[in-house]
Design brief:
The chain contains 19 helices and eleven strands. The protein is mainly alpha-helical. Among the domains are: 77 residues, Glutamyl-tRNA Synthetase, domain 2; 61 residues; 91 residues, Arc Repressor Mutant, subunit A.
């Protein structure tokens, strides 16, 4: 199977399950997803849990759940399974062992018996002479006999990769030509730890190879490690994938997205009622990867318009203050589409039930038709569905029952006002604005003798919401729509 690039595109998102998925991770996953989908490829989730000390129970499931919430589920993953699993590195230890044996046989790796004490001493000495600590490759020079002897004595050891001079340049999809002469700055890196777990560098290369990964799109912090990975590919005799390193996602002011701020975890946005598409649109709006800057791209449009060659090298700045606006635009788009609107109606019904369930004596206000009307009327005015169940909009869901006598005390002409307003409502089209309606109400008041404007408003507000305070009467009527507003006026003032 060959995509338009001539190879089957297989990309992966490879998080370490050390906590919640944050926005930077979501962006990396999204770019991988977009790249896969636009090339008819596969998007793979691989959980890199080889550093067992840092693994947080439940984090891997949480990350996959958030990708699903965001609408970018992996095609292959721990949950989905797939042809090249397992998709969790801790379950692939035998594969890393086999790969390590291969390198040992080729003489490209060696067993290292240096004790933690010796390594610590090396480190301290280096620091004292103001040098960067690095392993001195001592065990590289042990004879076969020495090694066999130590192994037979059961000496604890790790396996290190022989870093050779002569790193070859590679062309990164985003950063262009790049090369790091790792052997001149680093000691031979550990690839297999004494507990049989691989280090990131080995596991990553072995898995990308065994999983048939064609393109590695990952955070720019790994750019400097890529030369090391390429040396590993060379030692194995494997063809490496193409690499593209994605610049960091930073706050608008250039500071690091702090995990302590709370508002960097995808879970948080989901709980706050953020629309997944709005979040995806926002994190790609930082001027990277697209020909033009535009708000309101759907996932389908993001997929069609993303161009990895347009990802810029400078860090992407995230402006979270724009999120409500992104949400508003996406919500309006979804309300405007019948199929999506149906889903939203069900969501609002569930929210209303949850918040006002015990106070909904009259089921009419939670019916599909009414909720749909509310959505259409509020389209463009709200940024989250949740806004509709805030106290400000409680009147939408709670039909008041105010005793007739109380209304009479506000205005003796309650019934006459009711009839006139009903007439006005019957003449109104659904596309009213609060200003127009406000003007009409003023004119109407001039026809009534003996009632002041303020009393009339108080009366109508009570009839519509049972409250003395709240949004303007015209605004309430516009939100309720002429039918529901009419029903309330009729019940309170005219029957
Ligand atoms: N586990 C690494 C991380 O979380 C993955 C790096 C890579 O994609 O190669 O950053």
């Amino acid at each position: 199977m060959g995509g338009p690039l001539g190879v089957a595109v297989r990309v992966r998102f490879a998080p370490s399950p050390t906590g919640f998925l944050h926005l930077g991770g979501l962006r990396t996953a999204l770019y991988n997803y977009l790249f896969a989908k636009q090339h008819q490829g596969r998007f793979i989730l691989r959980v890199e849990d080889t550093d067992q000390n840092r693994v947080v129970p439940g984090a891997a499931e949480g990350i996959e759940g958030m990708l699903e919430w965001a609408g970018i589920p992996p095609d292959e993953s721990p949950r989905q399974g797939g042809p090249v699993g397992p998709y969790q590195q801790s379950q692939r230890l035998s594969l890393y062992r086999k790969a390590t044996d291969m390198l040992l046989e080729k003489g490209a790796a060696y067993r290292c018996f240096c004790t933690p004490q010796r390594l610590e001493l090396l480190r301290k000495e280096a620091l004292r002479s103001q040098q960067t600590p690095r392993y001195d490759n001592r065990c590289r020079h042990l004879s076969t006999r020495q090694v066999a002897e130590k192994v037979s004595q059961g000496a604890e050891h790790v396996v290190r990769f022989c870093l050779e001079e002569g790193s070859e340049p590679f062309c990164d999809l985003i950063y262009g030509w790049s090369r790091h002469e790792v052997a001149s700055v680093e000691g031979d890196p550990v690839i297999l730890k004494s507990d049989g777990f691989p280090t990131y560098h080995l596991a990553n290369v072995v898995d990308d190879h065994l999983m048939g990964i064609s393109h590695v799109l990952r955070g720019a912090e790994w750019l400097v490690s890529t030369s090391k990975h390429l040396l590993l590919y060379k030692a194995f005799g494997w063809d490496p994938p193409r690499f593209g390193h994605l610049p960091l996602l930073l706050n608008k002011d250039g500071s690091k997205l702090s995990k302590r701020q709370g508002h960097v975890f995808v879970e948080q946005f989901a709980q706050d009622g953020c629309l997944p598409e709005a979040l995806l649109d926002l994190i790609t709006d930082c001027g990277s990867g697209f020909a033009e800057k535009r708000m309101g791209r759907t996932l389908k449009e993001l997929t069609a318009e993303f161009d990895v060659g347009r990802v810029e090298r400078h860090s992407a700045l995230l402006d979270l203050e724009k999120l409500p606006e992104f949400n508003r635009i996406h919500l309006a788009q979804q309300i405007g589409e019948e199929k999506q609107r149906r889903v939203l109606v069900a969501e609002v019904q569930a929210l209303v039930e949850q918040v006002y369930g015990d106070r909904l004596e009259d089921s009419g206000v939670a019916e599909k038709g009414y909720v749909e009307q509310v959505l259409l009327l509020r389209k463009g005015h709200i940024s989250r569905l949740k806004d509709l169940v805030m106290p400000k909009y409680a009147f939408l869901w709670i039909r008041p029952s105010v005793p007739r006598e109380e209304l009479q005390t506000v205005s003796a002409q309650a019934e006459e006002i009711g009839r006139l307003v009903l007439g006005l409502l019957e003449r109104q089209a659904a596309a009213w604005t609060a200003e127009e309606l406000g003007r009409d109400l003023r004119q109407l008041q001039e026809q009534i003798k003996g009632t002041q404007y303020s009393s009339m408003m108080k009366l109508l507000r009570l009839a519509l919401s049972g409250q003395q305070q709240g949004p303007s009467v015209a605004e309430m009527m516009v939100s309720l729509g002429p039918r529901e507003a009419g029903t309330r006026i009729q019940r309170a003032l005219c029957s």
